[in-house]
Amino acid sequence: MQAEKLQAFVLSARDYGDSDRIVSLFSLEHGRLKAFARGARKSRKRFGAALEPIARIDAQLRLKAGLSGLQQADIRNIYPGIRLDLNRIAQALYACELADALTPEGQPLPRLFRLLAAYFEHLEAATAGEDDRRFFELNLLNILGYRPSLEGCSRCGNLFGESGALLLEGGELACRFCAASGRHLEELTLKIMRSCLATGTFGLIAFPQQALEQAGTLLDEAVAAHAGRRLKSLEFLRQVNS
């Protein structure tokens, strides 16, 4: 079987045995893949430092269901600026784990690949902010079809007006006629979040503090509902921010 050349991000990597590694990749061509890198911890020529999380690589894989064979990996970008700042490292690792947890295996998602690329390039060039993380989460959920409805009630479909929306369990948004209680999200918060989906460019949208807190509560609920597991990188990110 001939190896296929792919563009990919390294989402995670773990040692296996004395010299091998198992890596999770997110590729432009095939989405998320698991790969076995034989001799990766000893072969500097074939892998070097290319199998570190956050790295963007050119990979040669023998594709198989379950666990592909990684033949070679060459670094395209290691993002040295990210690796010099603890907060940026935490944000990038969280993005990697989120993509690893939420995406289906073997399904091409080129928009998500471009989103990861844009996020890492932004983190490489600028100081990391909470706005950036929320921008990434919202666009990732949108690409995967998991985004809460920001336009109208999830139950009756009526558009949200000046009274905003109520946040229910699991990231569901409803109007006051369909829900008796819930956390209130102002219309301004919903409007800014819709703007995040319209631009697609990091650094253009700024959240006022109250809107940032409301959006964060909504996105935390939505991510937790779909991740299906505790995200270690999220705990690390919160520790860094605190």
Characterise this structure:
The structure is a single chain. The protein is of the alpha+beta class and 242 residues long. Helix content is 37%, strand content 22%. The protein has helices at 86-102, 110-125, 130-144, 187-199, 209-227, 232-241; strands at 4-16, 20-27, 31-37, 56-62, 68-77, 165-167, 173-174, 183-185. A hairpin with a 5-residue loop joins strand 6 and strand 7 (173-174). It is elongated, with a radius of gyration of 19 Å.
Strand and helix map with partners:
Elements (H helix, E strand, L loop, with lengths): L3 E13 L3 E8 L3 E7 L18 E7 L5 E10 L8 H17 L7 H16 L4 H15 L20 E3 L5 E2 L8 E3 L1 H13 L9 H19 L4 H10 L1
Helix pairs in contact: 1-2, 1-3, 1-6, 2-3, 3-5, 4-5
What would a concise description of this structure say?
The protein is α+β, with helices and mostly antiparallel strands and 242 residues long. It has helices spanning 86-102, 110-125, 130-144, 187-199, 209-227, 232-241; strands at residues 4-16, 20-27, 31-37, 56-62, 68-77, 165-167, 173-174, 183-185.
| Annotated CATH homologous superfamily of the largest domain | Recombination protein O, C-terminal domain
SS class: alpha+beta
Runs with pLDDT <50, length 5+? none
**Helix share of residues?**
25-40%
Can you count the helices? 6
CATH architecture of the largest domain: Up-down Bundle
Gyration radius (Cα, Å) is 19 Å
- Count the beta strands: 8
Share in β-strands:
15-25%
Strand order of the largest sheet: 1-2-3-5-4
Helix and strand succession? EEEEEHHHEEEHHH
Number of domains: 2
First-to-last CA distance: 50 Å
Instruction: Characterize the biggest β-sheet.
Output: 5 strands, mixed, barrel
**Which overall shape is indicated by the principal axes computed on the Cα atoms?**
elongated
- Determine the CATH topology of the largest domain: de novo design (two linked rop proteins)
Mean pLDDT: 94
Under the CATH scheme, which class of the largest domain? Mainly Alpha
